[in-house]
Amino acid sequence: MAKGRALVSSQERESRPGKRAWRSYSRPGDPGGRWEIDRLIHERLRLGMVSALAANESLSFNDLKKLLKTSDGNLSVHARKLEEAKYISCSKSFEGRIPRTVFRLTSSGRRALERYLDHMEALIAAARGR
Known about the structure:
By secondary structure, the protein is of the alpha+beta class. The chain has a domain at about 40-110: Winged helix-like DNA-binding domain superfamily/Winged helix DNA-binding domain (Arc Repressor Mutant, subunit A, Orthogonal Bundle), CATH 1.10.10. It has helices at about 10-15, 40, 45-55, 60-70, 70-85, 105-125, and strands at about 5, 20-25, 25, 30-35, 60, 90-95, 100-105. The strands form 3 sheets. A 3-stranded antiparallel β-sheet has the order 5-7-6. It is elongated, with a radius of gyration of 18 Å. About 15% of the residues are buried.
């Protein structure tokens, strides 16, 4: 198999309960180096949030909710995970009596997204045999 990452077979995954579904391989161009997909960003909604914030200076809670077509509760849970990891920052204020929550991508969040994209590009290249 080409260097990169591969999915663990369902049989192998079942024999190792609680283990990640991804197996670690050397990164192309870095023999002996090991890397892991950032599971925090890899989740679909969180990847959407981080990507949207990378393309915008900031987005309000309602903007993100509409963009990602998700519920208040779902967005809140995922935003909290990203905030705890310091990938995004959250500022809360009021416009009159209406609460306003604004999210921004932090520098560590931008670096994490860049690493994630590098890993995905390496996975694609390995799968294509490049």
